[in-house]
Amino acid sequence: MEKQEEKVLKASHLVFVHGAMHGAWCWYKVRSLLESAGHKVSCLDMKSSGIDLSDPITISSFEEYNKPLFDFMSNLQDDEKVILVGHSMGGLSLTHSIREFGNKIHVAVYICGPMLSIKNLDIPRNIWEKRHALGLDKPPTTLMLKEFQRDFLHHLSPVEDSVLASMLLRPTPSMELKDVRVDDGGDMDKVKRVYIKTMKDRLLRPEVQDQLIQMWPPSKVLDIESDHSPFFSAPNQLVNLLLEAMAHE
């Protein structure tokens, strides 16, 4: 037990990657709880998200969207390992990072997110606001969820958090998803992966998450009784699961 606790303390730098439309701001509860417990926490804004003012229409590749995370990982000390946590679409960023920076990742934790691909996911299709900046005959350049935000993202979250999100959510670039690499295996499996399944999720339903898990089985699967946004609806439970994932062998 002492050896396990010692290992957790050495690998107590958690790096958080938000999902579509969100930003580093969505982790404020989780960050506060973890820092109060003595852990180091970094919350990143992906390109054109949060306080990064890049126009999402200009983001044309997944590498460009992921650049803040890649820059962060590149600047880590050679002997430093982090716990990488990704929510929803942020899971794809984690997988991309595992490929490039696997030696710097202690554990990768996916929260209700795809690990390999978003193609053919059985999610609600008629709830998105789409912008076609390149013309109506071209694929949408951005996606946004406004009218159905509360119903599909935050239906169990405190109203004040849902209102905060409605003020801070930004359109997510959709062109960057066209070139996501989804290969797995090989050195990719050298990084331990933990999946946290949101059991009352209306956007990415539990049975859909089961399909994602079956595509690339992680080392461990944990359940949380939350909506799609456990950082709002169940922050204490989420922190406990993250601590469990950090100690996972």
TrEMBL record:
Residues 14-239 form the AB hydrolase-1 domain. GO terms for molecular function: methyl indole-3-acetate esterase activity; methyl jasmonate esterase activity; methyl salicylate esterase activity. GO terms for biological process: jasmonic acid metabolic process; salicylic acid metabolic process. It comes from the Eukaryota. PANTHER family: METHYLESTERASE 17, METHYLESTERASE FAMILY MEMBER. This is Methylesterase 17-like protein. It comes from Cinnamomum micranthum f. kanehirae.
